[in-house]
Amino acid sequence: MAGKVFFSVSMSLDGFIAPESVSELMGRQWVELQAWMFPLRFIRENLSLGEGGKGGRDNDIVRETFERTGASVMGKRMFDAGEQMWPENAPFHTPVFVVTHEKRDPWERLGGTTFHFVNDGIEPALDQAREAAGDRDVRIAGGGATILEYLSAGLIDEFTIALSPVLFGSGIRLFEGVDAARVALEPLHAEPTDRVTHLSYAVRKR
Question: Which residue of 65, 69, 152, 168 could cross-link 16, Cys pair, CB 3.0 to 4.6 Å?
């Protein structure tokens, strides 16, 4: 049985998931947005940062998200930024399908991550990811424009937002330009922790 297609992101209280410029990634605002994740034990393990780290519910949620994911899809903007920042042992440990116009051979990294470059659109990329994932889920990893394309096309089954207590003021809004006439949401779960509030929704067609 095929798994679900989902995304999971951190979002500021005013609706932003990233700064406007790739050069601002890892800047102050982005670090504040993701601050709830950095101390987690699973993140430290996954990035080979050594032992220790914080347990608890946030850690469990991040681990569960990783364990359900059999393959990921991302856009070229996210890949370009990540290619400069990810360690050699990239944090996905599954196949990753990059939606891009660039023709490029697969890029294999340590730990089971291989990036495949798909040149013919979001649906072929998703088809390849589904096949690679088997009965596990496919995560649309980002960035925001790619998530929005899949959401507006009716290809997302569910998503989770970690609502972080920070304000951006400007940047990339998660739902900017969404085709709201095609998308209805069903609340699944809301869970506050010490650092963020995790909000989960199923996506339904109107």
Answer: 168
